[in-house]
Amino acid sequence: MKRLLCSLLMLVAGQLGAVDFDYRLSARPLAENVYAFIGKTEDFTTDNGGNIVNTAFIVAAQGVIVIDSGPSLRYGQQMRRAIAAVTAKPIALVINTHHHPDHFLGNQAFADVPIAALAETRNGIAADGNAFAENLYRMSGDWMKGTEVQLPGKTLSAGVVEVAGRSLRLVALDGHTGADLVIVDATSGVVFAGDLAFNGRAPTTPHADIAHWLKALDQLDALTRESGFKLLVPGHGAPTTDAAPIRQTRAWLTWLSAALRDAAKAGLDMNDVLARPLPAEFASLPVAASEYRRSVGHLFPAAEQEALGAKP
Amino acid sequence: MKYPLTIAAIALAALMPPAEAAALRENGDPLASARWSEMQKAFLAGAPVLFDPRVKVVAPSTAENPMQVPVTVDATALPGVVEVVVFADFNPIVQVLRFFPESAPAFLGFRVKLQQSTPVRAAVRTAEGVWHVGGTWVNTVGGGCTAPSAAGGSKEWQQRLNEVSGRQWSEGPNAGRLRMRIVHPMDTGLVAGTPAFFLEEINFADTAGKRLMRVQTYEPVSENPVFTLQRTSADGPVEATGRDNNGNAFKARIAQ
User: Fold this and answer.
1) Cβ contact (<8 Å) for B181 and A308?
2) Which chain A residue shows the shortest CA-CA distance from B227?
3) pTM of the model
4) Alpha helix locations (H) across chain A?
5) How high is the pLDDT of residue A48?
6) Chain B: residue whose CA lies nearest to A305
7) Structural domains of chain A, ranges and CATH numbers in brackets
8) Which of these, A77, A117, A259, B50, could form a disulfide with A121 (CB 3.0-4.6 Å)?
9) At what angle do helices A288-307 and A244-265 cross, to 10 degrees?
10) Cα–Cα dist A38/A51, whole Å
């Protein structure tokens, strides 16, 4: 009995020890002066604390440009420390690529520096930010402690901008959300795709317009065919030297929208659609089953409306 | 079996496959809900109750969108269905809808707003006066009943209120199926400043005037409701009529 109690206590202690709220971020060099923190291809859990997203930074001549700030205050703080371990230069600018919470809830850790996003992204964070944060508290638990929405104070628009002595090309697209920013760092040849591209993980669709997204993927694809292109950094999953994440994302979205449209035309009810198996091509893709279920909820009503002959 | 069955239940069990008969229970809510006895009093008072696996309630175990949780009730395995009551034990407004299958099979698909995790149940009254109860737990994160309808944010629905669209399928695996969508905010009255405003009654009839099904709907049915019915044979157009609690009526023909 005593031994059992002992091992139980050790088990409890072990569990407590595992949750030290350390994301163990280490900057992975992508090119000269360009680094990323690569998250897991999982859903938000109390184990990963929301470290399921890619964030990045560029060490420019006069300071550091941060691309997305992660899912929580703790992530932002730890990210900032990890950046400081690489360079002593100050943070010049934080950019949020779009209005999803895993990309902007670390903003608080950068409250003393300019934070910028496309106009629609700023509006989206202002409108939905608190609800998103609440949802992440539910999914990631105490990793979220102290996290509050910090709005980006500056508006970005498409075009070439000089930041901290570095020239960045900002490409304003949409489809994953109402505003999706792609950042092309011409100096290094790195293209930061945000969540327009997913690699080795099923895409998320809560604010998606699939037709727009597919168009955006064509434009993103064109960027990878430019002569200076070296590396594509997707919003989730490993960076690649080719357009593979774009092809994967396109394949998923094309299948998904056709499957939902065909199901609605065949008279299926939402529960019938949810019960359908994934095609073999996607069955082993991480989080495919849960993202499919979510996407049915997000996208099937519109497909159904069309099939029933309702006005959009 | 822990509890003895009544004579009626024994008679019923004798007509069922052994596995299903073994699952019949008069006592002990299989969904272990703290509100079961209240539900029983509210909806099924005074009549014998049987938890019956032939009453199938299909809903996702985790609802991604609490405003639009799909529910399918299939009691076609039970003979002599008179009335079906659908309720969700822990919803602020418990009663979701009632339907009376007349010449249509006892099958109805729809979507509901859920405020928190709850059992969603169908109690099916058969001709001999027994309530057969089936159900399933749905886990959700709330906000379904106290979040404003999308219509609340736009004026467009006022022009399109009670606009009906729909289709029937006469071929393929879903032959006999009818699906219908109605534009309606289905406001619960639980959002400050927005009074309850919801469809109350929908009737489906064939062109000869023979009623297929009558549906009484309540506040928890989702905005812009979509219903799925099954006809024994797809035989000509269906006339859908109904009204909301403000007396706005609609009438539409769903072609085959």
Assistant:
1) yes
2) A269
3) 0.89
4) 2-18, 73-84, 101-104, 119-140, 210-224, 244-265, 270-274, 280-283, 288-307
5) 94
6) B181
7) 20-241 (3.60.15.10)
8) A117
9) 50
10) 8
